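We both want to read discrete structure tokens more fluently, so let's practise on a single case. Once you have written the record down, we can walk along the chain together.
***
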Amino acid sequence: MAMEIPAQVRRYWLPILLFTAGFLFQVLVLPRHFPPTHYDVLGVERFASVERVVEAYESLSKEWLSETSHQPTVDIIKIRYAYELLTNPVLKRDYDLFGLDEHKDVLERVKEQYQMVHFLKIDLPLLKDSVVSLIDDAFNVLTHESFMSAISEEYPLIILVYSKGSPRCAQFIEYWKQIGTQLDGIVRTAMVEVGDSQVAGYFAEKRFSKRPFFRNGVPTLVAYPANCKSPSCYMRYPGGLFVDSVVDWVATSVVGLPRILYYSKETLGPQFIGKSGNHKVKTIFFSSTGERAAPFVRQAAQEYSSYSSFGFVLWREDESQIWWNSLGVESAPALVFLKGPGTTPFVHHGIFSKSEFIEMMEEHKHHELRQLRSDTSLELGCDARGHSRAGNDAAIWYCVIVAGRPGAELSKKRQILRKAQDKLLGDVDRSAGNVDNSVETSSAATAFKDDRLTFVWLDGEVQKQICAFYLATDYTGACGPRDFGDDNDKPEIFIVRFQRNATYEALKAEKKNNLVDVLQGQHADASQLVARYKGPVEIEEINRWISQIIKDGDTREIPYFTSKVPDLVPEETSKAWNSKSIRSAGKSLKENIGFHFQDYLTHPMIGSTLLMCGCISMGILWFRNNTPTQSTRQEKARKDKAKRPRPKLSTSLFGEPSVPDVDPKDARQWEMSSSDSD
């Protein structure tokens, strides 16, 4: 049979619970989170001078040597440790300013080693091998003036807060140099010594006592993003002090660089090559270690995001034959550039520096046959509102376009047009820049050499309007979305001749433009003529046709006229890494709420508050249980109070008549027979 809880205990369960919680908090929680200070161990006031510490230690040491002393060895070790720490100027300074005690591991190790040994056998001093100096290793140390100047610059800043007397800082300094090397050109690095309390105080946290402290000790890392101008809007590094972790945090959280994902042989094609933009060069890194992309590679992925897509592949020996057959990769590390269908991948084996990588990116950032897009039309010289690649002085220029819906047929036509372009480039190179006029393709080669001829391809599915405008008739096989089950893809090759009339342009410049002309921009459009290729899809025939078009276009007098050309539809843009918000001090405050929550659970006033609440609840319950009740006579009077009688309900629907009804004179009683009759 279960023991029944006494009635008094059930009645006062809440005060008992509060008293118990408050007592346990005072006995167990407070001593753990607020242990005695080293000054308390020596029995001196807080922030006592070194002389006062020495005096207290000598007084205590005399007691150890007395024959009547039975003080435990562990207590003597604590006193000796406090004495050595508080007599070292650097260690005492760190302890007084921020409560730093970077040698606790030494204290715990000595206590465990000598707890059963007489104190005279302890090897002194305890901190002889732990005190270090980082005066010679520190570099780019900030003062208050240089600190305020550094955070005002438009460039991310990473700061290492360190102490000259910390062994952890001495071990981390070499890692810090490696971090600075990897982040060179992406962020600035600097150091702040805790002795400069005016600057180091910005990065310290504060508990309820308002005393600054570093939660994880030193070294600690803080970062100021490029848009952070206030000393209090920094970001605190939350992870372990490893080179890879710190570099990844800076690149991702501080600078906002994109991550470059790894792909397997099964996912590289459909997930990376297939889903990235058709206009982008595919940049593939092969790694044998699976390491993260270097910061300068991630920075390049951000800067060249409109030109190239980036991906990593983990090199495996059992897959080496696959990569050799498909991409020509022999071993890792390697870098591959894929530049459109039918092109030979460019492969670079071995490691590379930042400058070498940027040089390769500049060389291979474009497809050999570029895509005509809204953001590249002016650059390529295929926009009536602009000029040729040769500059503003060229009055006539040409753009050869293959338009169609993305697919196998368009890839074939793109490959053929690219080879036609390479053939013209080869004709120019063989003659060392001087093209023989007797050659059938001389006009095209000359225009190509002079940057008056450009080869591009157009996505007819996305750019339906301008595709239909140029082709005019019979464009359903090249322009517009593909119907369900429709495999009738017929990419078309055509050439656009652009011309600017100097006389006409001068007259337009003298004439004051009205508002409609300004808004439509028609005054800036060049004259355009379109010729469609109907011949065989052969490289020589295409170049011969292009050359004839250019020859006629350069020599014949063609009327000058302009027409409104549909605008190119803006396609995919890399918006993910272009928008940067301003980081405020309030955001940093929100990030610290998680850290402060644990501090609130250990607030010194929690125990006393629980005890006070227990007293209050005890008093309330006692008062309620001992208050005299009201007299039974008054209660009975309230219960026996006369009630208002309920009205008597009528037996009829309309109530009892006040005057009896009078029978009419000619009225008679109707008699009902007991049986039916005819």
Notes: The first strand starts at residue 157 and ends at 162. Confidence is low (pLDDT under 50) at residues 518-523, 575-586. The chain has 26 helices and 16 strands. The first helix runs from residue 7 to 11.
